[in-house]
Write a structure and sequence with these properties.
The structure is a single chain. The protein has helices at residues 2-21, 27-60, 65-73; strands at 100-101, 108-113, 116-121, 127-131. The chain is an alpha+beta fold. The protein has two domains: 2-60, no CATH class; 65-131, no CATH class. It has a four-stranded antiparallel beta sheet, with helices on one face. The chain is elongated and about 65 Å long.
């Protein structure tokens, strides 16, 4: 029985390894997922948890502190947009919301939605941080 589990674990780890390595920017997510998966499901859980953690880590990588500081220091007179959708980290802001680029970090933009300053990824429009 142990041999079957070991072989199955090896096969899954080998099959999922390329996906895990593709998420190099999310080492914390992958490592955290692998540890949690190992605790819950042993070697198979570690392989699956690493891939899931890497995918989740991609969505929530926070922006650099200089970007957060820049957004915090912008004048409060920036118009706020009201939307029905809940603004959530990892989800895109609606297309109707106008984004203002962050000059020193062009991959980020910000906006004020529902009276909250929100930092988004310029390419995907996904929320990366809600500034409180």
């Amino acid at each position: 029985m142990k041999t079957k589990v070991l072989i199955l674990s090896s096969m899954i780890a080998t099959a999922l390894a390329p996906a895990a390595f593709a998420q190099q920017s999310t080492v914390n997510g992958a490592a955290g997922g692998a540890v949690t998966g190992a605790i819950v499901g042993g070697p198979v859980g570690a392989a699956v948890g690493g891939v899931v953690g890497a995918a989740a880590g991609t969505a929530i990588d926070p922006p650099p502190e200089r970007v957060v500081t820049y957004v915090e220091q912008q004048p409060a007179s920036t118009e706020t947009v009201v939307v029905k959708e809940k603004i959530v980290v990892g989800k895109p802001v609606p297309e109707t919301v106008v984004l203002t680029p962050v000059p020193e970090a062009p991959q980020y933009a910000y906006t004020v939605v529902n009276k909250q300053r929100v930092i988004v990824d310029q390419k995907t429009r996904n929320v990366v941080q809600i500034v409180r």
